[in-house]
Amino acid sequence: MENTIKKFVFLIKSQWLIQIKHNKTCDFEYFCTHTDFYKSVKQSSNIIYFLMKAFITGGTGFIGSHLTDRLLKNPDNEISCLVRSNEKWLTNKSVKKVKGDLFDYEVIKNALNGVDVVFHLAALVKAPNWQTFEAANVDATETIVRLAQKAGVKKVVILSSLAASGPSNGVPLTEDSPLKPVSMYGKSKKVMEERIQTLLNDSTAITTIIPPAVYGPREENIYSFFKSAAKGICPIIGNGVNPRVSMIHVQDLISGILAATNYDHDGYERFFISSELTYNWKEIMHATSLALQKKLLPIYVKPSIVRQIGAFVESIGSLVGKYPILNREKAVELSLEWTCSTIKAQELLGYRQQISLEEGIADTIKWYKQHHWL
Predict the structure, then answer these.
(1) 3 within domain boundaries
(2) What pLDDT was estimated at residue 236?
(3) Looking at the domain assignment, is residue 115 inside a domain?
(4) Which whole-number Å values give the CA distances from 116 to 17, 56, 58, 131, 203, in the listed order?
(5) Share of the chain above pLDDT 90, in %
(6) CA-wise closest residue to 313 among 300, 333, 329, 302
(7) Fewest 10 Å CB contacts: which of 5, 41, 140, 193?
(8) Does residue 366 form part of some domain?
(9) In angstroms, rounded to a whole number, what is the distance separating the alpha carbons of residues 13 and 11?
(10) Which residues are 297's β-sheet partners?
């Protein structure tokens, strides 16, 4: 731990002296908190600039496993992850596996002893009814926050979703935009955000992270798009120009989560962590085509047809006892515009998008191929 801190201080001081040498007046304290160099160091994927004892829910999942991997780059971090049964991406990782689920309150209570930060990333993304969403995404989150407060945890970082804010209409949403979800999942995240704001106290800071669609290695839902593209077919909703979407590579999201974790504040804060640019489906198809090194055949699908398909798939799912990821509500979401602004995160956290759409999709497809998903 001591060596990690020394290396970090040496790196910053070296860059400060370079600025002084070039006759650039710069107070050291200001350099350590405001300059572009410091901000770039803060979000570097190779540097963990703070030490922690962390408890993670959702660590076996797509985003949670990448957060765990990043934290493990600092061997002095102590990481515990809530695991139901399948360790999945945590297999053979140097983390403490806490056996249980979101409703094992006594297990979670014991796991929070001495913890500095709770990362609550676990959530239910599909369910046939509101009661199931409410229990998993609202009630369980409230319980975790209350348990963290009782345990004296200094910060709780909670993953929400752009679905809670609702679609944009030509102008990217900000953190101050009213929440207008169009699905039960989105509503559950909205109610979750509202609920936790009623729990604030003076000892535990709560930060909510709101990402748009997240892609990257290990992702299993957007993967179906790339799987179709690998066969030469590219389904596009609308005319390919509209609607536009914000997207973020998982590594940029993890950088944003950690920057927000390191941001000191009292009470409650929420941040959109997203791509700085927005994209249309023609741009996404072009980036995918480059990564696959093949020409893709676009199949344009009207939003009304997507909704019909969603209703049909959901009906079939109910007959076989499985609720599909493509359902009535998801079909509605797919046909709308989903964009958000990262200005607040840029100004307060020093967050910047590091991975372009082309680089991100190439990285994702490379991983899918290496692991025989494509």
Answers:
(1) no
(2) 87
(3) yes
(4) 34, 11, 17, 32, 12
(5) 71
(6) 329
(7) 5
(8) no
(9) 6
(10) 233
Q: How far apart are alpha carbons 187 and 182 in whole angstroms?
A: 7
Asked whether 61 and 159 are in contact (CB, 8 A), the reply is no
Give the least confident one: 5-9, 67-71, 121-125, 347-351: 5-9
Task: Give the whole-angstrom CA distance, residue 116 versus residue 112.
Answer: 9
Tell me the per-residue pLDDT of 197-223, one tens digit each, with 9 for 90 and over. 999 999 999 999 999 999 999 999 999
* In contact, 313 and 246? CB cutoff 8 Å: no
Contact between 278 and 167 under an 8 Å Cβ cutoff? The reply is: no
Determine the average pLDDT of the residues in 188-196: 98
What is d(CA 189, CA 191) in angstroms, rounded to the nearest whole number?
5
Compute φ and ψ for 200, nearest 5 degrees. Answer: -60, 140
Number of folded domains that form the chain:
1
Residue 137 lies in a domain: yes
User: What is the pLDDT of the chain when averaged over all its residues?
Assistant: 86
As given in the structure block, the two tokens for residue 72 are 């493990």
The reported pLDDT for the residue numbered 238 is 82
Instruction: Please report where in the chains the tokens 């190779």 appear, as a residue.
Output: 46
pLDDT digits (tens, 9 = 90+) for 127-160: 889 999 999 999 999 999 999 999 999 999 999 9
240: left (phi over 0), alpha (psi -120 to 50) or beta: left
Which residue shows structure tokens 């962590």? 273
CB 162 within 8 Å of CB 338: yes
- Rounded Cα gap, residues 265 and 273, in angstroms: 17
Mean pLDDT of 280-307: 90
**Neighbouring C-beta atoms of residue 78, cutoff 10 Å:** 17
Token pair belonging to 233? 């077919």
Name residue, tokens 């249309």: 280
**pTM value > 0.90:** no
Q: Where are the strands (E) in the chain, listed by range?
A: 53-57, 78-83, 96-99, 117-120, 155-159, 205-210, 213-215, 233-237, 247-249, 268-272, 297-301
Parallel/antiparallel/unpaired status of strands 78-83 and 53-57: parallel
Helix 223-230 to helix 357-370 angle (10° resolution) is 80
The pLDDT assigned to 46 comes to: 43
Record the tokens describing residue 132, joined without a space: 């199931």
What is the domain range of residue 258? Answer: 43-212+247-275+338-351
